User: Which sequence fits this backbone?
């Protein structure tokens, strides 16, 4: 996606300048993994124009493989961002309707070919949120990956502003989770996406993790295909001061990390993607899941 | 429309900055007329978001009446612009599919109410080029304006990159011209839009106007509803050096202006809109059409 | 006024760029009220030049009525601003001598005409601080407003750097307060402007409000014309971390708000004006004054 | 003076940024002379604030002696500049009323002390144009310089927008010319400032210099105190394409330079000041006046 | 190399901003070839730091293979650029002493491995100009390429400011030319680099090409290993208006292109590199050398 | 040195812009002293190019005497800076090898002439860290200054990334300290530079100063030539939130300052130089060393 941001803390169009960068949850993860030294390919649909070529050039700059990107459709999804200040929250305006990915169909990607030689497939709950065909596409990819023996990780990544094409998030996500090995979720994602009724504290106090221990245990029960459930915990003190923590349950136990005070946040969008990338890297490179989790939370906070 | 332009002569995304301004043929004419001291209202459809509010704020800044703008639909039409340099031409990427205006329907605007108390309606060939419903809308507006006794001006403004919804330009524009009093056209617009076969020099040599005399005469014959045909003549020497001239035929005769050398062009988009605004202003304020034409070409070249 | 600010935290003229925006206490209030959805007109004097036209365009962008602005005099008041950092305080250089407003005279504005159909008049202690004629003008406006039955609000807004034309602030402000219904004041404004000797804590500890209860009570005694006294309380922890609170006394009682921690302040100038606008909005739209006060302090802190 | 310019070819306040630099005819000459390696001091009045300190710092950066600058008065003269484009001319808004120099008086500068050890005094027709006291000050300086044996050069520099304090330019400038050794003038300056009725071509065709030969001869007759009359000839083809030439008459003859085509003009303000500095440098360093003139026109065109 | 340029036409350090881009003759050719769709690898030495990583990222963005870049040495060569305006010429300050490439040695690159599977090697006269070891390296590469059957092209690219390590250009370049198949030269490069005494017009009038016919013929005689000699002809009318042409001699004849007027030059550095890339592309893709030459001069002028 | 910094918190080359300023420990001290009103000269070696001239211009702007700067050598030392954010630390890339100062020799500066009429010489441990010749030069300067009766201050300023020319810091600095009257050191500088084994807390808790009392006492014992040892104490809470304190021992006692909370740090580089300048100013202007120390720490924190 193209991200168009007002400079600094400016309101939308306060000055006639926008900062144009490329982002999106899966793109961020691919770029981070490549920066960490892994071979990463990014699979999406992009239109046949120079804006899309700029996205591809940016991915190449970071060494991400762009060979599987389909050039089709009308437009690149776009969103506008205005950074908050003091009590004024950040604002996002989505302009992603009718994007190439939004209108891509299941048959447009030959997943068998794409996954040839790959060991891991990561996707998020954002793609299935934008259209029925994108949801179908995601399920197809996950099923194929699973069949071919790839490790499949899914970041629930619930965004209430999306999910407008008629399906409820709980109609779609539980089916997807059944095809994942690793699930990443924020504090409320499990309730929102999976309809789980375990109680988590409504006040965002990330110091007590007991509830999350129970929540993650329940997840492994309900979705026995999952090997790992990782939960990110973010407490927003102000628009540029957060506290970050995380916990993880695998079949051997429940682990949590320290709490990190993160102030002077340059750009909060993307911390969760950094966590996902760090976790994938860690699970591939460290000998225990606790270490992978510690690495993941550091990536999120940097 | 939102116009996103690379700074200076930069290529697309060479730097992470875009200059964001608002434009579009009819908007430019409305703003110019307001700057010239006339009361102008701008009628369009815009989505319910802050980007659209910025458009409206900008119109208000110039004193344009925005009360008739409908807030509906999904998005604001957008285009990307890269300014040419030397032999490298300027480039435009349209991202206007599914814009609010594109998807607006005939019934969305109550033209009788909108035209209440107005004396002039100006529109262009760009709106009917983007969708069938926008073409229907334009015809409806022109018919109503004509019935209510407004002067109706139409700038043919042919853009080959548009007209993708199935209809050919010659299926649509001749019918619209029948509801206009004043037609503005570029050198090739009459051939392209109206299928007229009068010969005009293929090499853009604006020094000889004989052909344009014949062309405009033919137009008044074919479309007897027209009182005035004004033709803009632009010769592009290089990306920032043009020559501008124009001619006009009314029922009394054929007039032409001097040729203006226009170098150091800051922004070529919009010169034709300046011409249209200048002509409308001139026809309302000067006692003869030759004077109005001279004023119009000065507005185009400033 | 034209505000010329060094970019970011730069010292004056460290780079050859200045950020030019338009401000001033009354202008900020008018703009905020218009943003909140009220009909607001801004009355001032501005010179006949393009700088002034830019101010007017900016007001129009926000929907503020500019029809009563007089175009006369030599210049627009200007000030230079350098944002502080760490222990280095912000700096302001005023260049507002001989501004159009400064040299405007009582007869220049026909208040009866201006107030026709209006319900509220808001002014501040800044205008009477710049010249004798501006003070006379302010008194004339307040008297007329009162006679015509408008609600009159006055923000004392004491600025020691102004008040250079010979009169002491205490010679002028008490008379003005006599023509107001609502008075807004900062912690020390009452002492400075009105010579009141009630003790308020010298250390800016906004947690204890007892003194302000006494202070506001005394104000209602001394100025029986006042219905409401609102006091803003700001504690400056550092150049970009403040604490904000406020209290209000009306004939029914004394109310105070929570304390808001406001960090990452983008631009501290204008928080007081946001309070005034919020209070005016709240008093017009909420059924009790406590609610209006809560709304006002939120506007100040956003 | 502080010069506040819109970026590039932007209209005033099109973006919220202004480029702030320091200029003014005499300041430009002082800076240029210092750059050329001569010892130059700049004498003016500036207020006691940080804006003025920035001017002084900038002068020091170029090695100009700032010891004789008086710190007094209210403000620094300011002007706003918008660069033209195509047929749109550049625009200047002066905001120099009540500047420190404008309100400085004859007694404020001890010229005997200032000129101690100096060999040359250069001034222009801009200072006497802003106020009676500044005109008196200029005359006082020129008289003292002459008495002390300095060479005195005066650039007529006629600006019609100034001269608003009651005196006509022809009431003031002839008296000043009587105290100069060298006079620099643009094509029309002699007629405008000195009321000379020699005919010069109204169309700015700088290719024929005959008229200027006659004009300069007449000047030496009328003002026998003058040793040199230098005339700058500038033909403006477009806002960024000029032609420059010049001629000079001394007691030995009449000389002229080649015509220089000057395109891609970054900033036209200051070319005349470059000419003056080049001439002063040339007259001090070359053995004949023709060579000095050639050097001067090169400085103007660079 | 890192290129640090003052913004627009600013003088060095007039503002505290520099535009940082990466360039250099061979890098420009590699990037252009990759843009044109050929597989290109760029071979150089770069230090182990983030500045070098940014160069590599930028190359990757354009699809250039960076696998053969050696990470060694102390620094990246840098140069400062100030764009000229009117009569003021552009200025370059080289800061490339002790760069990684400058201090690289013959043994540092295994050319046999690098050239494995390649069809073409292009180099320029800039590398041998910076140090003895870089000259040795270049010769080694050319010899190996020739032995392995690659086509070898050499752009003489004479820069007088370089060549400071003790050797004269004529001591080094003739030997290199003996190992090339295709030589590219500017008007004076043959005289300067190869000591050829054929007369070429001293005034840069590119309209007459006879001399260049003779010059190129002589080159094929003296260096029978050459198949093609291409000469670029550039006439600088002003700092942003050039005229470009070129001619080429092969064993079948002598060809020349039209003259292109190139105004509004955004950045003149790199036009020659565009020519070289265009020629390499053309010779690989077109069936005759004249067509390749036409393509090359268009690339130079775009 | 030239400092090239990414804008705001951008990563290196994230955008194509660098902020170019001039810095370096001794330059910062000279500029600060001049700002405080003392006469300061800056002595260094700079190449003969426009980059160096910009440094000199900048020094002159602040009134620093630049007459003793030698123009010799190849290049100006450069470093690249990227400001940290949250947990991401700031990064510095040095590119100062082969700078003019680095390659200057003892005989290049005539210290007797330079120190003529001077009262104070300040230098730092950075210069002796860059090359053997620079270390020799520093010793020569300190010896001469001592002989001529100047007060000599030395800021140890240990930077581990430098010291690459073969000598260990402890081979060089102790000898230099023997020629100083006043030594300034950070918490660990004494251990690192002088090999002192007094224990200081490894966790940077600046609240307890006992260890520093012992450390400074030992310094006066070991180096009886020293009259004053000043220690700066900085605790880095986050990349833009520090705590600052300092202590000082002279022959009469041990003093310490309050702790200053310094948040919203615009630019942390240079705080230590501000301390040094403040201390020198204070020792010259206040009647006791405690007062000088208080002033110094305020300068550091502003």
Assistant:
């Amino acid at each position: 996606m193209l991200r168009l941001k007002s400079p600094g803390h400016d309101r939308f169009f306060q000055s006639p300048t926008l900062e144009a960068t490329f982002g999106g949850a899966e793109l961020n993860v691919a770029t981070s993994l490549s920066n960490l030294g892994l071979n990463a390919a990014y699979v999406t649909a992009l239109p046949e124009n120079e804006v899309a070529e700029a996205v591809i050039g940016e991915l190449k700059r970071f060494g991400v493989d762009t060979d599987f990107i389909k050039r089709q459709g009308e437009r690149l999804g776009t969103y506008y961002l205005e950074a908050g200040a003091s009590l004024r929250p950040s604002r996002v305006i989505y302009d992603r309707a009718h994007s190439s990915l939004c209108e891509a169909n299941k048959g447009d990607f030959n997943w068998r070919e794409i996954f040839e030689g790959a060991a891991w497939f990561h996707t998020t709950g954002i793609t299935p949120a934008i259209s029925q065909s994108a949801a179908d596409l995601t399920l197809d990819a996950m099923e194929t990956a699973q069949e071919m023996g790839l490790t499949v990780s899914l970041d629930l990544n619930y965004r209430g502003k999306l999910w407008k094409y008629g399906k409820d998030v709980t109609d779609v996500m539980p089916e997807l989770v059944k095809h994942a090995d690793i699930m990443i979720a924020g504090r409320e994602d499990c309730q929102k996406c999976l309809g789980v009724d375990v109680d988590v504290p409504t006040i965002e106090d990330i110091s007590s993790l007991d509830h999350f221990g129970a929540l993650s245990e329940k997840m492994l029960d309900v979705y026995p295909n999952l090997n790992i459930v990782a939960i990110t915990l973010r407490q927003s003190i102000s628009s540029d001061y957060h506290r970050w923590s995380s916990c993880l349950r695998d079949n051997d136990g429940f682990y949590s990390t320290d709490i990190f005070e993160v102030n002077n946040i340059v750009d909060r969008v993307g911390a969760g993607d950094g966590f996902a990338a760090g976790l994938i890297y860690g699970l591939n490179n460290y000998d225990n899941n606790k270490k992978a989790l510690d690495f993941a939370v550091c990536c999120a906070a940097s």
About this structure: The interface with chain C takes residues 14-17 of chain E (CB under 8 Å). The CA atoms of residues 146 and 285 of chain E lie 21 Å apart. The two ends of chain E are 22 Å apart (CA to CA).
